[in-house]
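Hi support team,

I submitted a single chain yesterday and got back a structure, but I'm not sure I'm reading the token output correctly. Could someone confirm the output below corresponds to the sequence I sent? I've pasted both exactly as they appear in my results page.

Thanks,
R.
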Amino acid sequence: MKVAVIMGSKSDLPVLKPAIDTLKDFGIEVEAHIMSAHRTPELAADFAKNAKDKGVEVIIAAAGKAAHLAGVIAGHTILPVIGLPIKSSTMDGLDSLLSTVQMPEGIPVATVAINGGKNAALLAVQILALKYDTLSDLLYKFKEDMQLKVVAADAELREELSK
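Hi R., thanks for writing in. Yes, this is the structure output for that exact sequence:
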């Protein structure tokens, strides 16, 4: 089980760190790189073309502004690509979101929320869980734990308001 996490610049790491941590929590190997769709296009294309042969099964590509990193990666691989738009000072990340989600027919990029690093990781886990039953079990446990936290918070709120 291996996921590649590609970021457009090192300044994206604070958004990617929760994704990397989440993947590792599920026991998934993570390979992280900095690549640019515009400043290192050959490097990004070469990585995407060879990722499958290196054992990568899903790629998370994160970039800010109107960078097309996820699209460039998706254009050079058959692996699932999850686009993670990064909030920038320009348009609060809306430009990143639109450049990631508005892909031409034939080059799909699954896209999560602006700065949605953890959800990008969880989507990668869900994709891998189709192949790895151990991940399915861990995902069920993860969702059960979320439910228990909400139920506990609800009980705590009702207790607090009844006073």
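A quick pointer for reading it: Helices lie at 13-25, 41-51, 69-74, 94-101, 117-129, 133-161. Let us know if anything else looks off.

Best,
Support desk
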